[in-house]
Write a structure and sequence with these properties.
Elements: H1 2-7, H2 9-34, H3 38-61, H4 64-85, H5 94-104, H6 107-122, H7 131-166, H8 177-194, E1 198-205, H9 208-215, H10 217-233, E2 240-243, E3 248-254, H11 258-275, E4 277-278, E5 281-282, E6 285-291, H12 298-314, E7 320-322, E8 331-332
Parallel strand pairs: 6-7
Antiparallel strand pairs: 1-3, 1-6, 2-3, 4-5, 7-8
Helix pairs in contact: 2-3, 3-4, 4-5, 4-6, 5-6, 5-7, 6-7, 9-10
Bound molecules: guanosine-5'-triphosphate (GTP).
């Protein structure tokens, strides 16, 4: 639970908002019933139930975007309802609700829901009698919406930038190991759902240490960047490319069965050998290939591809070993 809260920003926000709603609205719901205002009490109770159900849905399905829209719609409808059946005190709830809308949802959704909420409340003659009161409400609610809009947009932009930095290797521009773990999980789920094959190549630059030792670290870095460029030029846009260690890379190939894996591995290996060199010394790679087997875990799959790659190294380097099943013997693919 702690791990999900830490890794899923949207889920954490939904959970926090649901907890704050429970703490903030429950005393009012009780008070409404005690004061003989059952209708308003029922609205408060409905808000609490809907928010709880929305948060539970987000936890169960992981569909946080849908849950966030549901939460924002519930808050807004609740506010409009209270403004029409209670007095001015109901209107005051719209301010935190507007802020929550913008923090929970994307720009278009939050603008739409907030505008509808402001208009819905402004139409209430019970809570806002007279034109000047209505105008003052619309003006203040619009200003709060604009502040929230600006703040939420900036915060979202910075969060996306930070996420991109955290998942990318700055030298080659490829995704890093953390990025790979996320992408592997997504691709495995999609493959299981669609029945489409999924392939993985793990490769390592041969004798890379000697490049560093003979020509310096900068020359080694240039080789890493060159290899990454060649891989990108020889794979499709929906293939995923990762730098998983110093001179170790992986390519995740959606839709690639055994034959396609063999073909892509051969193409990459030959392209690196042909196009990458360091001060005239050719650069080669050793590749381990493994198709995803339904039912196996990401770590077992990775271990199989890794094992095949080490086998390629031991067999003399600059070659591909394909490991089709969970157990060796491996199959040469070159
Ligand atoms: N230039 C550079 N070198 C790196 C980087 N990350 C790791 N290395 C170096 O990569 C080298 C890897 O060496 P080894 O693991 O011995 O492998 P190798 O020399 O490629 O030998 P084989 O893999 O067996 O073919 C080490 O010298 C690391 O210091 C990096 O970002 N830049």
């Amino acid at each position: 639970m702690k791990e999900r809260i830490r890794s899923d920003f949207h889920l954490a926000l939904i959970t926090l908002f649901a907890a704050i709603t429970a703490l903030g609205v429950t005393p009012f719901a009780i008070r409404r019933f005690l004061q003989g205002q059952p209708l308003t009490g029922i609205v408060d109770l409905a808000i609490l139930l809907c928010i709880g159900a929305g948060a539970a849905y987000a936890w169960r399905t992981g569909r946080t975007a849908g849950a966030a829209t549901f939460l924002a719609a519930t808050y807004s409808i609740g506010c409009v309802a209270v403004a029409h059946i209670a007095d001015f005190s109901g209107v005051l709830w719209v301010y935190p609700v507007l802020v929550a809308n913008f923090l929970l949802n994307g720009r278009a959704t939050s603008l739409l829901i907030s505008t509808l909420a402001i208009v819905g409340i402004a139409l209430s003659d019970t809570a806002l009698p007279g034109l000047s009161t209505k105008l003052a409400f619309v003006a203040t609610a619009t200003v709060v919406s604009l502040f929230s809009f600006v703040f939420a947009s900036r915060a979202q932009m910075q969060r996306l930038q930070l996420e991109a930095i955290a998942l990318r290797d700055p030298l080659t521009g490829a995704s890093n190991r953390r990025g790979m773990e996320v992408e592997l999980r997504i691709a495995m789920t999609a493959s299981l759902r669609s029945g489409q094959p999924l392939g993985l190549l793990v490769f390592d630059i041969d004798h890379f240490k000697s490049i560093n030792d003979d020509f310096g670290h900068e020359a080694g870095d240039e080789v890493l960047v060159r290899v990454a460029d060649v891989v990108r030029a020889n794979t499709r846009t929906d293939d995923r490319f990762f730098r998983t260690g110093g001179e170790e890379f992986s390519v995740l190939l959606p839709g690639a069965g055994v034959d396609a894996l063999r073909e892509v591995a051969g193409k990459l290996r030959q392209a690196v050998e042909r196009e990458v060199a360091c001060r005239g010394r050719p650069v080669t790679i050793s590749i381990g290939a493994a198709p995803f087997l339904p039912g196996e875990s990401a770590s077992d799959w990775l271990a199989r591809a890794d094992g095949a790659m080490y086998e390629a190294k031991h067999a003399g380097r600059n070659r591909t070993v394909l490991r089709e099943g969970a157990q060796p013997p491996a199959q040469r693919a070159t």
